[in-house]
Amino acid sequence: MRNEQVPDRNIAMELVRTTEAASLAAARWMGRGDKNGADGAAVDAMRMMLDTVDMDGLIVIGEGEKDEAPMLYNGERVGNGRGPQVDVAVDPIDGTRLLSLGRPNALSVVAVAPRGTMFNPRDIFYMDKIAVGPEARGMIDISAPVGWNIDQVARAKGIAVNEVTVVVLDRDRNTEIVDAIRETQARIRFITDGDVAGAIMAAMAGTGVDMLLGIGGSPEGVVSACAIKSLEGDMQGRLWPRNDDDRRLASERGLDLDRVLTLDDLVSSDDVFFAASGITTGDLLKGVEYVPGGATSESLVMRGRTGTIRRIQTEHHWRKLERISGGRYT
């Protein structure tokens, strides 16, 4: 019998309206040095549009617990309740600091999968990650040395090790990984924030990036997994505790810090949906550009079950949008 809870339409085409709205709201804060103001604007806009989507959504990866975030908190119900039951992962601004400083690569992202299929890191906020594209699928092992994994990617892609480009989040916690990459003479592209974009670049053809390595956000890891499934790439993760408090919390929550999380562990269904819109222009997407009477945006929309990937360039016209949103959209 057919599972009626599995989405049978491309929800991502509705979800992209939520990331577009968040991007349009957030982009006005570019370079203003106010991360909280930007995040609040993006959350409000995304929240408004999520409630128009035909789904019964439960936020698994959100903005925190209810007492810390008034909107889009973990456990919140979103959507209009008339569609399939789904898990929802949101990041209204992936790269809040990038946006506040007026730097490239800030995105708004959302992912959806059938209910109960997304991994919940349960407040363990960091994860060691490796991500690659389709060529190296099934050939990586996060437990193996960095050099071995780089060699595997080079073999899979038919290139020399010193031609492999690895994207790494520029943080002190990744120093040992960076040193190991340099020992292989592979190339490194550092990113200062926003490792969802980095993971997508590692899995997508034509970006100049061959793999992602290093410790970044665990919520971002789950979001990235939805995109990588759609791209037919591969990913592994392992929760990374910052201190004894994290170790104690993991024990209380029943989380195994030694467990290697495969792509299927991070999101067990293939029927995943992913949407991202550029806020500031970067390697993956163009950012919002304001024009007289409106703005333009660029988005990426993916569906795992069909492998469909769309780039959408949109013109937004304030006068018409304000008629249907009461000015809230803009």
Descriptive account of the structure:
- With 330 residues, the chain is an alpha+beta fold.
- The protein has helices spanning 12-27, 35-50, 96-100, 146-157, 175-184, 195-203, 218-231, 244-253, 263-266, 318-325, and strands spanning 56-61, 77-78, 85-94, 107-114, 126-132, 165-169, 187-191, 211-217, 234-239, 273-278, 289-291, 294-303, 309-317.
- The strands form two sheets. Strands 1, 2, 3, 4, 10, 11, 12 and 13 form an eight-stranded mixed sheet that branches.
- Strand 6, helix 5 (175-184) and strand 7 (187-191) form a beta-alpha-beta unit.
- The longest helix is centred in the N-terminal third of the chain and has 16 residues, at 12-27.
Q: What is the H/E string? A: HHEEEHEEHEHEHEHEHHEEEEH
Q: How much is the radius of gyration in Å?
A: 19 Å
Strand content: 25-35%
Task: Please tally the helical runs, counting DSSP H or I stretches of 4 or more residues.
Answer: 10
Terminal Cα span: 44 Å
Q: Into which percent range does the helicity of residues fall?
A: 25-40%
Question: What's the rounded overall pLDDT mean?
Answer: 91
> How many DSSP-defined strands?
13
Poorly predicted spans: none
Largest sheet: 8 strands, mixed
Mass-distribution shape = globular
Structural class, by secondary structure, is alpha+beta
